Amino acid sequence: MGYELIPAVWNFFVVLNWTFWIGLVVFIATRKKWSWVVRGSILGAIAVFFIFWVFIPLHEEKVLKDEKRVYRQAAYDYFHKKCAEDSGRFVYKPVLEPQDSVYMMKPRKNPTPEELHDQFWMGDPYTGTLTESGMLNVLLKGYGDRKNNPKYLGFTFVESSNFENNKQLWRYSLRPTGKMIQENRPAADLRPEMELNREPIDIIHSRYGYTWDDLSTQEDRQYWVAKSRLQIVDLITQEIIAERIGYVIEEGFGSTANFRNPPWIATGGGDTRWKTNYCPPRNDFTDQRWIFSVLHNVPFW
What we know:
Blueprint: H1 2-29, H2 36-86, E1 88-91, E2 101-104, H3 113-117, H4 132-141, E3 157-161, E4 169-182, E5 190-201, E6 208-214, H5 218-222, E7 225-234, E8 240-249, H6 263-266, H7 273-276, E9 278-279, H8 286-295
Parallel strand pairs: 2-3, 2-6
Antiparallel strand pairs: 1-8, 3-4, 4-5, 6-7, 7-8, 8-9
């Protein structure tokens, strides 16, 4: 409520300020007791003041706004051009048998606050701040309606190496705690509470894995545009069987004004901007749902 009053209060003081100066000029100009030299000198001083402290700053502000508007338009034109060239989700070789596991080939690390403000952070801003622990959570638990989309219940286990130590392999799975919980939505059924279980393994048992890369160029990042790729790989033949090539544009162009979140987090937040600032459109857990659709051989939704 308080923040909504600020523009109105500011406009009031702007009007008051102009009223004062106009009134002052009229007052001086109509003071016939003063000679024209005195009146001319005072009005000239006021004119100089306005030229150097009002009109020039206002002109510079207008030029800056025009430059920002031109830059924004050029950035979105560039973004739309890149999207039309090669963005999308592509399946080159369908998986005929639904898979019960997947291997994380390239674990992510948590981005630092400095990286999230960095225009040239090569950490796949399309996926945002989702680390492998976040990916792991959905890949195991699944996504969507448990009754109508049983193929989206999640994998039986997920295999991965540590980001810090790629030599150690781990298998992650969910196991019941013995308690029953209710999901946070109306008329949700009671379900067993699950906890994450991790155990070391010597070899990878999954047939397929996925990996990611940030493919952004210097020109992309000049416009606050990022390009990334998510690939699903046949670990036996080393074939790329599917890939997602995505672009995102940071709609604030690095701005943190008005308490905006770090740029690569804030972009696309709210409304339908996740459709207009990402191509292909990215909503919550889009990449995990796409992995499910490929490896479970079900339509993507």
